[in-house]
Design brief:
heterotetramer; A alpha+beta; B alpha/beta; C alpha/beta; D alpha/beta; B: alpha/beta; Rossmann fold; four-stranded parallel beta sheet; 15% strand; D: alpha/beta; Elongation Factor Tu (Ef-tu), domain 3; 2 domains; seven-stranded mixed beta sheet; six-stranded antiparallel beta sheet; 8 helices
Chain lengths: 341, 150, 323, 286
């Protein structure tokens, strides 16, 4: 399908059009930062953003989610599966890194003998309208992990901000179908397409961090047992776990039961390998008792274990962990140290 | 809403009675409550008693947990200052409760949900009066909604 | 400030040269503007890595409590609030006074990085310079000049301890008392005067963003329990969900646990990934213990915290006394 | 013989099947070890619960949560499952406090289990310590029901004291058999105990099973494993022929929650059974 042009003034019209068919999630400014939220009016949307603080994984993998409820009856226990019939939804303004994170999570939640039905169900009916990154942040390093600010992977449609308008490019059948439903949207001309290409080049040039992460895969394994290496980073870590909670690819969770008078529910919640409790045995033994080991686990999981089992780096280079860390632990510094070791 | 649920709801609205959890010190207030009973002093039947060895044994967790579990109010009653069986348990408790009460009231739980009193083993009448006052106070506040889980 | 930095480096260099300490924990340049990161110096020649500026907001006491530093003789760079947190830890026997050489820094308040960043968002600050009374931020296609006094952390604005109340070495001369730009007493009084419903609504709104990651707990220099109440399972006190009732429960009990100990350093607020500002609550805690027990946390190392002691005549106006 | 199908399991793997506790056996005097006999409420669920020895299941005590427990029964035992549970945390305590008739949820079977096919035609040395014997009980019962498939079978089982030995009824029966070489041992001598006294490594050395065409299958507390492996190596067992079963904190049992990860391996899906060779290439995070 030919590229289209959407004037920024037409954006509300598009959003209202989308809202007729979909639940629309888009970046909304809230409490000084951006977050993807289901919107009830086009006014709430603010596409003039770098990226959201909370990763959009939350849409498919909520921070607390009911796996099932149970009722106590005279005959014992009755289990009730939650109704997860997710209405058709569209995420507007997703960045390339985050779309990539969805592909990683898709792969992970379907990896092995079991599928995760909760994640898959929420993910299934979702259309992604991406927004190319004209202005990557200084903390972005997507190009080092196989991504790019103009990455289209995982999206159905990608928008490129051309100032007063967006270049609209459909990337697959789903995208085509959607655009066909919007008759008033006009075709783009050569000039618009050229402009978008120039922006791509500019954005790529803007990302200065060229970290040889792909090549470091084995080096990570080599430094595995070097306590002093990991200590130089873990010594400043306060183990708060913000890096994992705000990571678009961190997917570990805890499962707890919550009892009420007539029954209860089983809930899963985000968890993090940065907490000592994460690995603590009932006997009191802890296989990863030190911060050094826990930090190593997070780094190794993303850059060594993930590639081993899923053939992908478990990081999309969004830089959220760098921005979130209150003690300024910077994953890029870890890479550089690995490289030098 | 089923018929039964609706019925429960209307009943709740019309004939709601507060449920109050009382932690009574074994050495004084519990005996005080006993005395009130033996002396056939009337007090509202809204309290459920948990006997504790000392008011100092009452962890503030218990109180918030009780409110979260749907108790409309709590009462902790111990020995008068100076009379603690363990010398100072009630004095430790007094500081704890003061701060807990200040915090939750600051956060917007109206005063009256958390109640504390000193009742000795000889004060059966005082016990019945304390209960009456606490029940009246909580009746005015209505059923607890904040802090309880949906 | 540069003078302070030079003197601080010299002091650290001497301490390490004279082998009075095994390790000095201070601040070094961060990887982004307006940031510093902890610096662990063990060799005298590395002391030049240390910096002192308006972004040294971290509370380094947390590092003294870490296993890897137990038993070591540590030199620690502290501000007034840090020194107070340290005093609490010492009075609670978590840190041995003799094991720390406290290098006190006079402090005029640290910058509120989150506020500055929010000011220019969604643009990104790539360079920042702090002068006497201005913050000059630069980014792609923009330059912003902000008045420094408007961007000092709220907790610093009401701080009365510009010099560390306890320390071994005070670097430089005493600064002037910082003029309180925020009148916390008035702020609290105003809030307290609101009806309970409004206060509840405020906290519900404030905490609705809480994702229960417990970063506030983990960043707090006074949260050193080996097993935190939120992690206990038998019984499980706190529900683990992000239901507002569970969130409130957590924050009420956390407040209770730091009452009379909290020094208002703001570490919890800085660590919060959701930008939840807990300082109204911590200021209230300070006020409660001050009014009830005339106590201020972290001024002495040999005084028990107010929740660990009692007097016969503590106020008890809240005790039910029927007519 | 039962095999786990490699096909992807369909349906919701987080939803437990319901069982009823039909029997509780108190295994020791301290009373922190009980074996639960669980019967599925829906007999169909039992048919679908195709397992092999060495696998585990997630037991749900509704309101308390889930706990991964090794299956102590053998697939050759029809109609029920056995689980030996030590009282440690919130779920296991709730289980211990419950009576017959209580509903317990179960998810599984999970994990790889003992590699039965590899074991066929070999001499087997089964070494267990304490209550970790449960999946070894399963294996032994399975072997005895299919005795012709296996060569010599040696079982060495030790506990702190006689009362701590589980499955006393099974042990009594096994002792009578001549197609099974059973050695029982306790840590310290007590009155009335006529069998071996001593720790597992020493007893293993004494029994000195031949490593020829043999597998050693070891389960027990970490300290026992640490000292038993060198003995086995000395006896000539190669690392490929030493099989161990690991435990790690676990939540989901299906390789999603991340808790049990050791290197790129998930104990719940890649394990819990590993060869000593595999373990040597993994980080020591267990």
């Amino acid at each position: 399908m030919k590229e289209k042009i959407l004037l920024k003034a037409q954006l509300p019209k598009l959003i209202e059009e989308l809202r007729k068919i979909y639940r629309v999630l888009a970046p909304v400014k809230d409490n000084g930062f951006y977050v993807y939220k289901a919107i009830s009016s086009a006014d709430e949307v603010d596409l003039d953003f770098a990226n959201t603080k909370i990763p959009p994984k939350e849409i498919f993998f909520p921070r607390s989610e009911v796996l099932f409820t149970y009722k106590r009856t005279d005959n014992g226990i009755e289990l009730i599966e939650p109704e997860n019939s997710v209405e058709k939804q569209v995420i507007l303004g997703i960045r390339g890194c985050d779309a990539q994170s969805f592909l990683l999570l898709d792969k992970f939640f379907a990896y092995g003998k079991f599928d995760d039905p909760y994640f898959a169900q929420r993910r299934k009916n979702t259309l992604l309208i991406g927004l190319a990154c004209n202005d990557p942040r200084s903390t972005c390093f997507c190009t080092s992990v196989g991504g790019s600010p103009f990455s289209e992977a995982g999206m159905d449609i990608i928008l490129t901000d051309l100032g007063d308008k967006y270049l609209v490019k459909s990337l697959n059948v789903k995208g085509n179908e959607l655009l066909e439903r919007i008759p008033w949207i006009e075709d783009a001309n050569e000039r618009d397409i050229f402009d978008a290409m120039q922006l791509t080049k500019k954005a790529l040039a803007a990302i200065k961090e060229e970290l040889p992460i792909e090549k470091l895969n084995n080096t990570f394994a080599e430094v595995f047992d070097e306590d002093a290496f990991w200590l130089q980073f873990s010594q400043k870590c306060i183990g708060c776990g913000s890096c994992s909670f705000l990571c678009p690819t961190c997917h570990c969770f805890d499962v707890v039961d919550e009892e009420s008078s007539t029954g209860g529910k089983r809930i899963r919640l985000w968890d993090t390998c940065q907490f000592p409790l994460f690995t603590l045995h009932g006997s009191g033994h802890n296989p990863r008792p030190t911060g050094r080991q826990r930090l190593r686990q997070r780094v190794m999981h993303k850059f060594n274990y993930y590639p081993k089992i899923l053939s992908e780096i478990g990081c999309v280079g969004c830089g959220r962990c760098i921005l979130a860390c209150s003690v300024n632990q910077d994953i890029r510094v870890v890479f550089k140290a690995v490289q030098e070791s | 809403m089923t018929v039964i649920e609706e019925k429960i709801k209307t009943e709740e609205a019309t004939s709601w009675e507060p449920k109050i959890l009382a932690f009574l010190c074994n050495w004084c207030s519990y005996a005080g409550a006993d005395l009130a009973g033996i002396s056939r002093l009337q007090y509202p039947p809204n309290i459920r008693v948990i006997r504790v060895p000392c008011s100092g044994r009452v962890n503030p967790f218990y109180l918030i947990k009780a409110l979260q579990a749907g108790w409309d109010g709590v009462l902790v009653s111990g020995c008068h200052p100076g009379d603690c069986h363990y010398i100072s348990g009630n004095l430790v408790a007094r500081r704890r409760f003061a701060i807990l009460k200040d915090i939750i009231e600051f956060m917007g739980i109206p005063p009256g949900r958390l109640n504390f009193s000193w009742v000795s083993a000889a004060e059966g009448e005082k016990f019945s009066k304390v209960v009456k006052e606490v029940v009246n106070k909580i009746k005015k506040l209505g059923p607890i909604k904040k802090l309880t889980k949906k | 400030m540069e003078n302070l930095e030079t003197s601080m480096r010299d002091i650290v260099k001497n301490l390490l040269n004279e082998q009075k300490v095994d390790l000095v924990i201070g601040y070094q340049k961060g990887t982004m503007p307006l940031r510093t990161t902890p610096c662990f110096v063990t060799k005298a020649e590395d002391s030049n890595k240390l910096v002192w500026n308006f972004c040294c907001d971290l509370n380094l006491i947390k590092y003294l409590l870490k296993d890897e530093n137990k038993g070591k003789k540590v030199g620690l760079i502290v501000k007034g609030c840090d020194a107070r947190a340290l005093a609490v830890c010492i009075s609670e026997s978590q840190i041995e006074r003799e094991k720390v050489i406290i290098i006190g820094m006079p402090c005029l308040g640290m910058l509120d990085r989150k506020k500055i960043e929010a000011e220019v968002a969604p643009k990104e600050i790539l360079e920042a310079r702090v002068t006497q009374d201005q913050i000059i931020t630069k980014g792609k296609d923009f330059e912003h000049t902000l008045l420094k006094k408007d961007y000092i952390q709220p907790s610093c604005q009401a701080c009365h301890y510009n010099n560390p109340p306890i320390c071994n070495i005070l670097v430089g001369n005493q600064p002037l008392e910082l003029e309180s730009a925020v009148d916390w007493d008035a702020k609290l009084a105003e809030f307290e005067a609101k009806p309970p419903e409004e206060r509840w609504a405020y906290f519900t709104e404030l905490l609705s963003g809480c994702i229960k990651c417990y970063a506030c707990r983990n960043a707090c220099p006074l949260c050193y329990c080996k097993e935190c109440f939120v992690d206990q399972t038998q019984p499980q006190w706190v529900g683990k969900t992000t239901d507002i009732a569970d969130v409130m429960f957590y924050h009420i009990v956390r407040a209770l646990h730091v009452a009379g100990r909290c020094v208002g350093c703001g570490a919890c607020t800085r660590a919060c990934p959701m930008n939840i500002d807990l300082r109204l609550l911590s200021k209230k805690l300070e006020k409660i213990v001050k009014e009830r027990y005339n106590f201020e946390a972290g001024l002495k190392t040999d005084e028990p915290p107010p929740m660990g002691t009692h007097t016969a005549n503590d106020p008890q106006e809240f005790i039910t006394e029927p007519e | 013989m039962v095999q786990i199908t490699d096909m992807k399991k369909k349906g919701n793997p987080y939803l437990p099947k319901l069982t009823t506790i039909e029997g509780i056996i108190r295994e020791n005097d301290v009373n922190d070890l009980k074996t639960f006999k669980l019967v599925f409420k829906n007999p169909d669920d039992f048919k679908k619960f195709e397992y092999i020895s060495g696998q585990f299941a997630e037991l749900s005590f509704f309101g308390a949560g889930e706990s991964p427990i090794g299956i102590a029964s053998s697939p050759t035992e029809e109609g029920y499952l056995l689980f030996t549970v030590k009282r440690v945390g919130v779920v296991t305590t709730s289980l211990h406090e419950s009576k017959e008739g209580t509903t317990v949820g179960i998810r599984g079977p999970f994990g790889n289990g003992w590699p039965i096919e590899d074991l066929i035609g070999h001499n087997l040395v089964i070494i267990g310590g304490g209550f970790a014997f449960s999946t070894l009980r399963s294996l032994t019962v399975y072997i005895l029901a299919n005795r012709h498939l296996f060569k010599n079978v040696t079982v060495i089982y030790g506990a702190r004291e006689p009362a701590e030995l589980c499955y006393k009824q099974d042990l009594a029966e096994w002792e009578k058999r001549d197609d099974l070489n059973l050695t029982l041992t306790i840590d310290r001598a007590v009155d009335g105990w006529t069998k071996k006294v001593g720790f597992i490594p020493a007893v293993t050395k004494e029994v000195a099973p031949s490593a020829n065409n043999a597998y050693a299958i070891v389960c027990g507390p970490p300290v026992m494993i640490r000292f038993t492996i060198p003995v086995l190596t000395e006896l000539g067992f190669s690392n490929d022929n030493i099989l161990l079963s690991l435990e790690n904190r676990m939540k989901c049992g299906i390789g999603k929650c991340g808790h049990c990860m050791i290197g790129e391996k998930y104990v719940c899906t890649d394990g819990p059974v590993f060869t000593q060779t595999q373990l040597q290439s993994m980080p020591k995070e267990y």
